[in-house]
């Protein structure tokens, strides 16, 4: 094995390790819902190549209003899916789309783009 | 001069419950100058009629704010149709832009390709300066990257910031690597030469990949708009205006959003019915095919319900509005279909898990491919081989096919179902319907019309028919049972004078008792009489047996402890039932019937429609038990019913099908709602579910096998044995076609038509 091979091997393995850590194990941005006087839990989410924040905490049995602002035209994020609540919504680009739901039970529910590439989690406590 | 009123519509925000709506309404009504205020909680809109001399939009807003709620400034376009139209416009613009990007990439790739191949002709090469050719190719490739492919890189970068990777990440890394390598080979060819490498460039690869992937996207977008065509067509059915009769008798055309409950609306021949209501005067035939799939127009007269979006054919009529906006039948159908399209099918779970980790995994495989090629290939070719295979792996991987496999099929099929009057609650219901091998039919209202009529009225010898009719009718008038209604209808036809009944009591599954003319009157089945200790005279038994032999339901009548007559009631079998049951059996499904009738009636009806197995004398509360019994035999049971007392059985069944005009309770418990009262809907539902799941399976199989075979081949797994390598350009072609194939396969469901004879 020559020097170049050793360098490429080490760099490759290192890069693969980074990919695993970065996409699967690094910590994510979490946001808790803000409750309004009416008892509505509101969260603003920006959609641009992903959801920020992508982990959202809400309380059970209180209506939740998620406002998704889609800050891009890329077609990947045009659909929003929250399958556990039977929600499929199209998000117009550069517009805010309100999604309302009422979590009845505690648990973690995924929300994703139409193809399940962009992912976020709704944690109901 | 009489002051003219103005109408203002406000978008209210912050209402969380129906009582909030009434609160806002009160606050508005109390505002000086307001004549009428209606607040709709569902649409979050307030419609206010006010005198402009005393109130203004500003004072109205103030009233809303005083009540503790907010007013959203109205954008000029807020109706659902407008929003949809805007979304469609945005999509059309995006599609045009995508097409432009594709054509630019394709045009440049067509030039870049032959120029890159010059080296295949050594005689040509001698006349061309390699260095200048490479710079020329670089200039031609730049627009492909920066204009056509720009979105891949921004999207990949945005995703990366979110620790998310998508298809664009793969394309960006793949083409980015090929391009950067080529730029290095163009700018510092000496560095490559000194290491014994040819300074090869991959501009053609970069440009062709981008052009092909964009082609795939263009085709994909075009196909995707067709998957939701059905629901758009449904939404488009909504009438735009309604001709409302004002209190002064004037007929005014108003936008549909302003129609309110209890308004009277005029519908003339050939017009669309604006919203749901009850006919007050006039009669007509109405085409309800768009809601129920029933092709024959339905006769409507005063007192009959009409539904928004249906088409009035022959006569004109006026109806009183009973439902508006989100409460109408059309809106509910649209909502149900939308919900179903947003639901997740259990079959998709594996694909979902795979997509969640797909892209990072492919990146890792690509990196390892690079390392292995670099380490194992001969020194002089190791870098280009490592690079080409690295790019090929990234480009061939197609998470889209996996992601599109299930939802597109579900979308097409739920829309198609709605078109045929079959409303599927969610993807899971569709999957359950696919597994069904036994259909349990509640006889009344499904196989039969569910509208029994009295065919025989037989008093015992020595009894006066007219008098007996009076007594029976007095009891039955108090009952809500369909059989009782038939008796009452019969009595009315015979112009029987009414008598008063007291102490009415309904005995579940058996009949009813009451006191008429101070005599105890019992009307019901044989059990009712037996349990009251009443015996039948042989003459009556003989009559009853005769009626039973004709498959009629027999009501026994006892007055003052004596059996005094029998009534034969028959519920006619729907013309379509036998054929539909035959079709179900042809699909390999066992059809079982259950009924509250006695075994003779049950056998007769079962024989008429070709059913071999049936449960007779099933009491309403035993229905769910019968479903369990079939399930205990290891069957997957679909229960078809129509009434309130079916709800537990519908819920118990693996899949419940509630039949047309079904009650809300039954629709709640059912996975599938059939808009049309006819068993053909069951055939359609099961056939559609089978075709859909078959399509999904094909899609998933294809998407998995494509990636499972494609990625190793692209990584060069065949090279050691066959010397085969996959060009990244071929990989791009395969990738572009793979998601389109899945979509096209799903779109085949649009051609679904229910099996007929």
UniProtKB/TrEMBL annotation, chain A:
Endpoints of the signal sequence = none
Q: Source species, please? A: Hymenobacter lucidus
Tell me what this protein is called: Cupredoxin domain-containing protein
Q: Which residues form the EfeO-type cupredoxin-like domain?
A: 18-124
Q: Which domain of life is it from?
A: Bacteria
Name the UniProt key words of this record, in alphabetical order: Membrane, Transmembrane, Transmembrane helix
Residues that span the membrane, as ranges: 6-25
For the keyword Lyase, the answer is no
Q: Which InterPro entries match?
A: Cupredoxin (IPR008972), EfeO_Cupredoxin (IPR028096)
TrEMBL record, chain B:
Cited InterPro entries? ATPase_P-typ_cyto_dom_N (IPR023299), ATPase_P-typ_P_site (IPR018303), ATPase_P-typ_TM_dom_sf (IPR023298), ATPase_P-typ_transduc_dom_A_sf (IPR008250), ATPase_P-type_domA (IPR059000), HAD-like_sf (IPR036412), HAD_sf (IPR023214), Heavy-metal-associated_CS (IPR017969)
Question: Where does the record place the HMA domain?
Answer: 6-72
Q: Where in the cell is it found?
A: Cell membrane; Endomembrane system
Asked if the keyword rRNA-binding belongs to this entry, the reply reads: no
Name the domain of life: Bacteria
Name the major location.
membrane
What are the transmembrane regions? 102-124, 130-148, 169-189, 201-219, 354-374, 386-406, 700-719, 725-747
Entry annotated with the keyword Zinc = no
Record keywords, A-Z: ATP-binding, Cell membrane, Membrane, Metal-binding, Nucleotide-binding, Translocase, Transmembrane, Transmembrane helix
Looking up CDD domains in the UniProt record yields:
HMA, P-type_ATPase_Cu-like
Q: What is the recorded membrane topology of this protein? A: Multi-pass membrane protein
Q: Which PANTHER family match?
A: ATP7, ISOFORM B, P-TYPE CU(+) TRANSPORTER
Which NCBIfam families is this protein grouped with?
ATPase-IB1_Cu, ATPase-IB_hvy, ATPase_P-type
Similarity section: Belongs to the cation transport ATPase (P-type) (TC 3.A.3) family. Type IB subfamily.
Q: What is this protein called?
A: Heavy metal translocating P-type ATPase
Q: Which organism was this protein described from?
A: Hymenobacter lucidus
Per the UniProt record, the lineage of the source organism begins with: Bacteria, Pseudomonadati, Bacteroidota, Cytophagia, Cytophagales
């Amino acid at each position: 094995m020559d020097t170049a091979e050793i360098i490429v091997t080490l760099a490759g393995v290192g890069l693969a390790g980074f990919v695993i850590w970065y996409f699967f194990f690094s910590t994510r941005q979490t946001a808790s819902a803000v409750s309004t006087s009416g008892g509505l839990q509101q969260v603003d989410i920006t959609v641009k190549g992903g959801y920020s924040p992508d982990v959202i905490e809400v309380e059970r049995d209180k209506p939740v209003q998620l406002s998704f602002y889609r800050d891009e035209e890329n077609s990947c994020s045009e659909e929003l899916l929250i399958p556990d609540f039977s929600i499929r919504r199209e998000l117009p680009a550069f517009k805010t789309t309100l999604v309302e739901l009422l979590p009845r039970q505690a648990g973690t529910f995924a929300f994703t783009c139409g193809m399940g590439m962009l992912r976020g989690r709704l944690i109901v406590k | 001069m009489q002051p003219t009123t103005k109408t203002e519509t406000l978008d209210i925000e912050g209402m969380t419950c129906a009582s909030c709506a009434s609160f806002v309404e009160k606050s508005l009504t109390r505002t000086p100058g307001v004549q009428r205020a209606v607040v709709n909680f569902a649409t979050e809109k307030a419609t206010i009629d006010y005198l402009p001399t005393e109130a203004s939009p500003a004072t109205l807003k103030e009233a809303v704010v005083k009540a503790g709620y907010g007013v959203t400034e109205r954008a000029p376009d807020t109706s659902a149709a407008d929003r949809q139209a805007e979304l469609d416009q945005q999509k059309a613009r995006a599609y045009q832009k995508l097409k432009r990007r594709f054509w630019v990439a394709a045009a440049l790739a067509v030039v870049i390709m032959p120029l890159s191949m010059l080296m295949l002709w050594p005689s040509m090469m001698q006349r061309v300066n390699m260095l200048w050719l490479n710079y020329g190719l670089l200039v031609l490739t730049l627009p492909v990257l920066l204009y056509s492919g720009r979105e891949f890189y921004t999207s990949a970068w945005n995703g990366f910031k979110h620790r998310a990777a998508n298809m664009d990440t793969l394309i960006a890394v793949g083409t980015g690597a090929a391009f950067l390598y080529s730029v290095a080979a163009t700018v510092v060819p000496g560095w490559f030469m000194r290491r014994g490498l040819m300074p090869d460039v991959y501009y053609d690869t970069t440009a062709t990949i981008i052009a092909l992937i964009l082609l795939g996207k263009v085709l994909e977008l075009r196909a995707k708009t067709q998957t939701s065509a059905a629901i758009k067509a449904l939404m488009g059915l909504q009438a735009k205006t309604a001709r409302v009769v004002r209190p002064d008798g004037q007929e005014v055309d108003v936008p549909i959003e302003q129609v309110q409950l209890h308004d009277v609306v005029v519908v003339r021949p050939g017009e669309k019915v604006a919203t749901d209501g009850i006919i007050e005067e006039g009669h007509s035939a109405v085409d309800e095919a768009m809601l129920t799939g029933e092709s024959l127009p339905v006769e409507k007269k005063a007192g009959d319900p009409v539904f928004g979006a249906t088409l009035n054919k022959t006569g004109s009529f006026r109806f009183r509005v009973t439902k508006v906006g989100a409460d109408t039948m059309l809106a509910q159908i649209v909502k149900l279909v939308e919900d179903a399209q947003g639901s997740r099918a259990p079959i998709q779970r594996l694909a979902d898990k795979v997509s969640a980790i797909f892209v990072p995994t492919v990146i890792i495989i690509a990196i390892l491919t690079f390392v292995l090629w670099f380490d194992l290939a001969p020194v002089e070719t190791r870098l280009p081989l490592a690079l080409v295979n690295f790019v090929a792996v990234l480009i061939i991987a197609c998470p889209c096919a996996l992601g599109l496999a299930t939802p597109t099929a579900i979308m097409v099929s739920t829309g198609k179902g709605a078109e045929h009057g079959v409303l599927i609650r969610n993807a899971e219901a569709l999957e359950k319907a696919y597994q069904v091998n036994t259909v349990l039919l509640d006889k009344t209202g499904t196989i039969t019309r569910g509208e029994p009529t009295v065919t025989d009225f037989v008093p015992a010898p020595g009894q006066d028919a007219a008098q007996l009719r009076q007594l029976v009718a007095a009891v039955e008038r108090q009952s809500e049972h369909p059989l009782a209604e038939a008796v009452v209808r019969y009595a009315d036809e015979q112009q029987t004078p009414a008598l008063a009944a007291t102490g009415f009591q309904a005995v579940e599954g058996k009949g009813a008792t009451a006191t008429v003319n101070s005599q105890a009157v019992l009307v019901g089945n044989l059990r009712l009489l037996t349990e009251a200790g009443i015996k039948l005279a042989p003459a009556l038994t003989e009559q009853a047996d005769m009626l039973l032999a004709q498959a009629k339901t027999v009501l026994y009548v006892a007055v003052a402890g004596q059996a005094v007559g029998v009534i034969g009631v028959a519920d006619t079998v729907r013309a379509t039932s036998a054929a539909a049951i035959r079709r179900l059996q042809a699909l390999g499904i066992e059809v079982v019937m259950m009924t509250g009738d006695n075994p003779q009636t049950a056998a007769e009806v079962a024989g008429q429609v070709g059913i071999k197995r049936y449960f007779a004398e099933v009491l309403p509360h035993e229905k769910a038990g019968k479903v369990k019994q079939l399930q205990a035999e290891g069957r997957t049971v679909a229960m078809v019913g129509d009434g309130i007392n079916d709800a537990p059985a519908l819920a118990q069944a693996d899949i419940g099908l509630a039949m047309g005009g079904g009650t809300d309770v039954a629709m709640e418990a059912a996975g599938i709602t059939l808009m049309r009262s006819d068993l053909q809907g069951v055939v359609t539902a099961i056939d559609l579910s089978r075709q859909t799941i078959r399509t999904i399976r094909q899609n998933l199989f294809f998407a998995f096998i494509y990636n499972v075979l494609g990625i190793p081949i692209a990584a060069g797994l065949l090279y050691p044995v066959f010397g085969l390598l996959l060009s990244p350009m071929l990989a791009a072609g395969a990738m572009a076609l793979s998601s389109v194939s899945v979509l096209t396969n799903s779109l085949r469901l649009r051609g679904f038509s229910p099996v007929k004879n």
